[in-house]
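R.M. (postdoc): so does anyone remember the format we settled on? I'll just put the structure tokens first.
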């Protein structure tokens, strides 16, 4: 059920990072209940009997467990939710014992140590995949769903083969999880707003540090420290792009020295209690040319045109249609330009529903709904041939339209440390 946060006038609240007794802030019990109920409803509406989850964001959504960024590419953690049972999680070694001590919303018998092979480092011949498949098959029989398909999000091929040998029919479970996760609760929105607030503060530090002689990677370092100091639990990535590296957009950072007059843009992908940001800002260093200002003005016009359309019932094809075609800003195809004029959901993952672009949305539109939270981002190369402007805003869709939760000033080009 949508709560009053979707009918409030802006701004969306951004409470402190602590739990307190004198204000209602994030209610984590309510958050866990909401996420599990959303998943159960999506599972019940599908053809699936159960979901087997290896995507860390899905595991966190269903079980409210997490053990750190290092697990992102290990494929060691997994969770199972059946139509008739409670969530189960298999975790890395002693993490399972830790969960039994501190995660009292999970039954002890549903928290187990598990390991399938560390992406092939332990060869399949060791039998860990077969052991896992047999255990899962037994649990599906106990839950009475063995005759129904099992939904999976991501999986290693040896486990796929082992599950098939257990006569388990496999289907795509990722879409079911996206069904569950596309509408955010009050608590999720408060966490997303607070996550954005951490980046607001970080951009202030970046603006003060942007002087000739500092390197892109030094900006990344100071931003990373700031975010963790403020309470971030995962700084996933920071793009830092300046000068001649701005066009075309390389989507990374380097050791390039910032120089006078550079245009520079940054994207901060950070998380607070798991809830992420994707938040670009563009600066000029000391001064700006007419070409650079014009690029920024056009990028701002494009993003404002899309924000103006955001409301319940709007469709993503109409949003994408206000952005320029790929060949209008220097690219050969919409595939090559993908991610530059772009919208995407943000939540526990960086890319959730809806994904908005001219590549997919014009022919396959989605309806925008109250409770969605997504980022809108635009990119405009400058006429000088090497500078470019990049802007991104995160919006919460409300019953009355939308509210922007990314607040570092961006209506006009920000010239840092002006001469």
């Amino acid at each position: 059920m949508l709560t009053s946060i979707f009918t409030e006038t802006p701004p969306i609240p951004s409470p402190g990072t602590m739990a307190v007794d004198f204000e209602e802030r994030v209610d984590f019990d309510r958050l866990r209940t909401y996420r599990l109920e959303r998943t159960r409803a999506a599972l019940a509406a599908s053809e699936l009997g159960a979901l087997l989850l290896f995507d860390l964001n899905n595991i966190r959504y269903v079980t409210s467990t997490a053990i750190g960024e290092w697990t992102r590419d290990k494929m060691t953690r997994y969770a199972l939710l059946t139509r008739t049972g409670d969530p189960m999680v298999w975790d890395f070694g002693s993490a399972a014992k830790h969960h039994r001590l501190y995660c009292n919303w999970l039954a002890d018998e549903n928290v187990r140590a598990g390991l399938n092979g560390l992406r092939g480092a332990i060869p399949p011949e060791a039998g860990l995949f077969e052991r896992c498949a047999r255990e899962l098959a037994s649990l599906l029989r106990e839950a009475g769903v063995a005759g129904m398909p099992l939904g999976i999000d991501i999986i290693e091929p040896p486990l796929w083969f082992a599950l098939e040998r257990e006569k388990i029919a496999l289907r795509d479970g990722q879409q079911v999880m996206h069904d569950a996760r596309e509408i955010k609760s009050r608590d999720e929105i408060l966490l997303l707003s607070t996550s954005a607030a951490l980046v607001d503060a970080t951009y202030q530090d970046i603006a003060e540090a942007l002087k000739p002689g500092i390197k892109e990677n030094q900006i990344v370092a100071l931003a990373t420290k700031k975010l963790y100091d403020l309470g971030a639990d995962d700084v996933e990535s920071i793009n830092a792009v300046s000068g001649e590296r701005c066009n075309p957009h390389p989507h990374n950072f380097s050791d390039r020295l910032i120089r006078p007059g550079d245009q520079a843009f940054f994207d901060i992908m950070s998380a607070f209690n798991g809830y992420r940001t994707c938040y670009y800002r563009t600066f000029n260093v000391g001064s700006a040319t007419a070409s650079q200002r014009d690029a920024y003005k056009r990028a701002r016009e494009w993003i404002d045109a899309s924000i103006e359309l955001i409301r319940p019932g709007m469709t993503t094809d109409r949003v994408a249609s206000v952005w320029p075609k790929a060949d209008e800003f220097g690219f050969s195809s919409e595939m090559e330009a993908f991610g530059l004029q772009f919208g995407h959901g943000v939540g526990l993952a960086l890319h959730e529903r809806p994904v908005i672009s001219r590549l997919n949305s014009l022919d396959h539109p989605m309806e925008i709904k109250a409770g969605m939270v997504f980022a809108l981002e635009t990119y405009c190369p400058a006429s000088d041939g090497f500078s470019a402007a990049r802007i991104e805003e995160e919006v919460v869709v409300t019953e009355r339209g939308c509210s922007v939760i990314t607040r570092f000033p961006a209506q006009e080009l920000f010239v840092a440390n002006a001469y």
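R.M.: ...and that's the designed sequence above, right after the tokens. Also worth knowing: The CA atoms of residues 236 and 270 lie 6 Å apart. Confidence is low (pLDDT under 50) at residues 1-8.
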